[in-house]
Structures are given as C-alpha cells and as structure tokens.
C-alpha cells in the first residue's frame, strides 16, 4: 500500500514537471486583439504588433492601385489585411473580386477554393502552397463599399504547422457589421501618406 | 474482301441512321443586353422569376432550348440600380445554385482577355433525386447577371456529355467578335 502511494506521488511529480517544462519551452503566443475601421466598415482580430504600411496591387482589369496594408507577425505566421480602393470601378465589383482571387492562386498549388459568406457578403476563401517552399497561405476576399478587403494568413516554413487553426481564426474573424466588434476594438489608423 | 468492306459500310450507315438526330448549333446574340452564346435546338424566350435574400424578388429573361435530353438555359437578371453590389449578388446566386447539392467542380471562369476580362465561376452539380447533372456559369457585368445552365437529364445516359461545356463556354460579351450569322434574340418586356 505504501509502495503504491510512493509510486503515485513520483508519477504525478514527474508529470507536473514535464508540463511545466513544456510550457516554459513553448513560444510565447501574443494575445489576440480586435481591430475596427469605422470608415471602411469592417472589423477583425489578430495577434502581435500592428504595422501599417502602403502597398501596391495590379490587375489587368483593376489596373495599378495603391493599397492600405495592416500587418502582424506572430509565431512565424504573417497576418495581413489589405484594402484596395476600387470606388471608381465599383460597378465591376464581381469581376474585380474574381480577378483578385484568381491572381492569388495563379501559379500556386491550390488546396481549397470555397465560398466565404460573412454578414450577407459573399466572397471566396482559398488556401495555396507558396512556391519555393515559401509556406502556406490562406486568404479571404470580399468586396464591400467599393473596396476589396483581403485577409491573408501565411504560415511560414519556420512555423511548419501548416494545419494550424490560427490562420482560419484570423480569416474567419472578419465582420462587416461593426456593431459586432468588441467594445475594446482598436481603431485602425490610416496608412502613412 | 469486297463483301467485308460493303458489310462494314452498311453497318456504319445503319448505326448513323439509328443515332438520334443532332440539331445544329446556332449562334444567338442580344445586342441590347450585350451578350451572345451558342446552343442547339429551338431557343425559346420566356420571362421567369427568381428570389434571393440579397437580390430580392426579380423578373428574369430566359432563353431555353432542349436537345437530345439536355436542357440549355440562359438567364439574365438586371441589377442596373445595384451594380456596385454585383460581387455579393453573384456570390449569392452561385451559393444558391450549389446549396444542398453534390458539387462535382467549382472553378474560376473567364470570358475575354486583358482589361476586358469578365471573371465568374463555373460549377457542376448533381441534382437531387437523380434529376440529372447541371453545369452552370455565372457572370456579372454592366449591371446584369448572366447565368448559363446546361442540365443533362436522366433520360440521357451519358451524364458526362461534352455539350454542356460547349454551351457554357460559348458565352461572349464582346459583340464585335460574334458570328456574322448569329440569330438576334428579342428582349421580352418585364413588368
């Protein structure tokens, strides 16, 4: 009986030590925060520090466009929200959205191409493997209020867990009903001029 | 040897006679709505109805023919007052088309090239209760939604027939390239 108690104590102590060690060696995961843009009418959540930049987009139909980029990196996953202003060609929204999704998957190995339906907005969700072992990218594309809103989560090779749920968590966090954003959502700043 | 050749030719002639008569494919154009397509059989013009959560109730213009147990249907819906909502309206229509059906393929579809490209989707589904296989393409351009559907009916044994692809891929929005002998379609009055 006494031997059984000793063994149980030893096993429990060993397990507790292993759990403590594992949590100490795991990468520090940044907290997820909510972001909102009232002028552009969308909200999403992402981990890590927000970087705001200007970007560029080009499509045969869309032409050359400046974009607003909201970027985060955490645990070797890059999270990127890109806003492309198409208000001058909004009447071509279906084709412009199709073109953006097409360009994303062109020349890449396509894993998934499905409907993305959020708050009465129909878009596309796609997953591709990037060339030259550049990682796996999951994206969602929507067209709302004259703008293409794209969310892309790229699991970099240094992370290696290409089936991580974090990418889907980011992609599926988009909302076009800003009333649903949490009270503490951070207002997105305008990109630098 | 001569008998063999005669017998072979006679057999071939008999088998051709036994095949169902295939109607010729003709080109059709509607200059007012800005599109053209090709279809076999006798194309009839109808007014239809559709309803979507986003789109609401709509009257539609339908061009339809049936040939060799394949139904060919072109549906045109006007959204002139909601052109900027085209992406969501098209997405809703595509979603409804495949909802609760077995989806065989769902891919990008393109018409035209360069800056004149029109992007859409091509979806193939099995209809429930063995009612056939439908190939659909969906486009939204210049304020109108264009849906081409070809349904291989159960009476036709070969569900993988090539004619549906030929039909849906014949759509064109650049009328400058239309066939010179294209038959002009009328646009029915909507209420």
Tags for this entry?
heterodimer; A: 193 residues; seven-stranded antiparallel β-sheet; 3 helices; B: alpha+beta; Protein Transport Mog1p, Chain A; 10 strands; globular
Report on the architecture of this protein.
The complex is a heterodimer of chains A (193) and B (191). With 193 residues, chain A is α+β, with helices and mostly antiparallel strands. Chain A has a single domain, classed as Mog1/PsbP, alpha/beta/alpha sandwich (Protein Transport Mog1p, Chain A, 3-Layer(aba) Sandwich), CATH 3.40.1000. Helix content of chain A is 23%, strand content 42%. The longest helix of chain A is centred in the N-terminal third of the chain and has 24 residues, at 2-25. Chain A starts with a helix and ends in a 6-residue tail after the last strand. Chain B is an alpha+beta fold and 191 residues long. Helix content of chain B is 19%, strand content 42%. In chain B, a hairpin with a 4-residue loop joins strand 1 (25-30) and strand 2. The interface between A and B is medium-sized, with 27 and 31 residues.
């Amino acid at each position: 009986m006494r031997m059984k108690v000793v063994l149980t104590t030893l096993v429990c102590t060993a397990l507790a030590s292993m759990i403590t060690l594992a949590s100490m060696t795991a990468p520090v995961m940044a907290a997820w925060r909510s972001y909102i843009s009232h002028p552009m009418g969308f909200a999403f959540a992402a981990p890590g520090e927000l970087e705001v930049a200007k970007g560029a987009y080009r499509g045969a139909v869309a032409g050359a466009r400046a974009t607003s980029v909201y970027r985060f990196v955490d645990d070797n996953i890059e999270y990127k929200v890109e806003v492309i202003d198409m208000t001058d060609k909004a009447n071509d929204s279906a084709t412009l959205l199709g073109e953006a999704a097409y360009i994303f998957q062109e020349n890449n190995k396509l894993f998934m191409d499905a409907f993305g339906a959020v708050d009465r907005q129909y878009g596309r969700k796609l997953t591709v493997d990037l060339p030259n072992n550049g990682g796996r990218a999951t994206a969602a594309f929507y067209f709302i209020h004259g703008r293409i809103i794209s969310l892309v989560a790229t699991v970099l090779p240094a992370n290696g867990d290409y089936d991580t749920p974090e990418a889907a968590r980011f992609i599926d966090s988009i909302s076009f009903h800003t009333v649903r954003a949490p009270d503490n959502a951070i207002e997105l700043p305008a990109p630098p001029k | 040897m001569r008998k063999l050749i005669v017998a072979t030719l006679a057999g071939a002639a008999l088998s051709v006679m036994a095949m169902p008569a295939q109607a010729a494919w003709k080109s059709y154009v509607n200059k007012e709505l800005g599109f053209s397509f090709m279809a076999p059989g006798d194309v009839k013009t109808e007014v239809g109805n559709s309803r979507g959560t986003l789109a609401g109730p709509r009257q539609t213009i339908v061009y339809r023919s049936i040939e060799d147990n394949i139904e060919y249907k072109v549906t045109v819906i006007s959204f002139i007052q909601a052109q900027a909502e085209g992406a969501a309206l098209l997405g809703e229509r595509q979603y409804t088309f495949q909802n609760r059906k077995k989806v065989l393929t769902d891919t990008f579809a393109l018409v035209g090239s360069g800056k004149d490209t029109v992007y859409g989707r091509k979806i193939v589904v099995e209809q429930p209760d063995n009612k056939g296989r439908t190939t659909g393409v969906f486009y939204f351009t210049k304020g109108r939604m264009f849906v081409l559907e070809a349904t291989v009916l159960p009476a036709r044994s070969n569900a993988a027939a090539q004619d549906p692809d030929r039909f849906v891929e014949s759509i064109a929005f650049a009328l400058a390239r239309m066939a010179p002998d294209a038959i002009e379609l009328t646009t029915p009055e909507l209420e």
